[in-house]
Specification:
2 helices; alpha+beta; three-stranded antiparallel β-sheet
Length: 56
């Protein structure tokens, strides 16, 4: 999934503190997130919490 954000570099750091790896994309200003069936609901919730500042 690609998520548009203002500062991809900064948004990569926040989920990393929670143990989640996301990748910054150069164009558009976005990050790439891969969620799979093996991810737990808790892991997805942590990711969404970490990304929330990009959407508010």
């Amino acid at each position: 999934m690609t998520v548009n954000v203002n500062d991809p570099g900064a948004m990569v750091c926040r989920p990393a503190r929670e143990g989640t790896v996301v990748r910054a994309l150069p164009t558009p200003d976005a990050i790439h997130v891969s969620v799979h069936a093996a991810n737990s609901r808790t892991e997805v919730d942590h990711l969404l919490d970490a990304l929330e500042p990009a959407w508010t």
